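S.,

As promised, the arginine run. Input:
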Amino acid sequence: MSDTGKTIVNSWNEWDPLRHVIVGRADDCHIPAEEPALDAKVPEDSDMRGQWGRRPQETIDRANELLNNFASQLEKRGIRVDRPTSIDHSVPVETPDFSTESQFGCMPPRDVLLTVGSEMLEATMSYRCRWFEYLNYRPLMQKYFEEDPKFRHESAPKPRLTDADYHPDYLSEKIGVEKRLKWTAEKFFVTTEEEPLFDAADVLRFGRDLVVQHGFTTNLKGIEWLRRHFPDHRVHAVNFPGDPYPIHIDATFTPLRPGLILNNPQRRLPDEQREMFQKNDWQIVDSAQPAHNAPPPLCYSSTWLSMNVLVLDPKTVCVEKSEVYQAEQMDKLGMEVVEVDLRDAYAFGGGLHCCTADVYREGVCEDYFP
Ligand code: ARG
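Predicted complex:
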């Protein structure tokens, strides 16, 4: 953001001082209809199984209230906030390769938009119902394109998402958590290597290095595509045995500032993947326990949204208001905590990091792992 109020897109990591951000909306969000791999991605004991269609209006209103409050909280701190324009998510989608009964929503933006420097990249996505989700953000992309002469609006090749993208072994109703954990440890995931697939929320930005989770929503070809797309970056594939539903990295691995990362204690980064951090004296500490025993109703995510925090600058972090243990740990780590009430919006796809996408953070591309 410049003094004239015109947009500048620039963000190289997850912690530099945040000046401009997109916050999602709950408008017209839908629970996806049946599609291949959907069952594989929704926790087996979830109350969402078998349900689909527009989310109840009162939950949409409540989530919007919280998202609006979060946006004004950020604005009061001098951060510029933009919001998506919801498309009609009840519209069924048909491509030459697949059709789906309805779409998903304009939450959470972190899943779709990856900002690297002056570029915003629309991810391929890997759910059929999320294939057109980028359209919710196109009005913003157009505005940024007009206002910032250096802005690079990019879109990754849209995948075909035929049945060949999904391992049939995963498509049975109940696999059981034990088998899931074994498969995750073996890096056998629901998505095949048919074509590049990635969601933006599987990527964490550390200046010159991009750390990408290989799992249900991002395959190795997707990671290779990112490697070729960002030739000046080092792209590292990571995976977290211990997560039976490896979808999006941001409730698993959370950088707070240069030298410090929180890691979900149930989903520990394997030793051999810790090397680059250890060699450069980065600390990886276990995150605090979540304050809740179960996610709220109709929620895709686990209770570990507790660690899905939004860093405002290397000393300040937004933590969900009810996550008292996480807040306490932040305090001990020397971070100032900004409490944000968001739990009733978790069902719409995630926490404070998920429901935002970076437009501008101060700072330049640094090499933290020389
Ligand atoms: N799979 C994560 C969990 O349940 C939630 C990640 C949500 N992140 C996101 N960007 N939507 O622990």
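The first strand starts at residue 18 and ends at 23. Residues 108, 110-111, 201, 245, 247-248, 250-251, 301-302, 304, 349-350, 354 surround arginine (CB under 6 Å).

- D.
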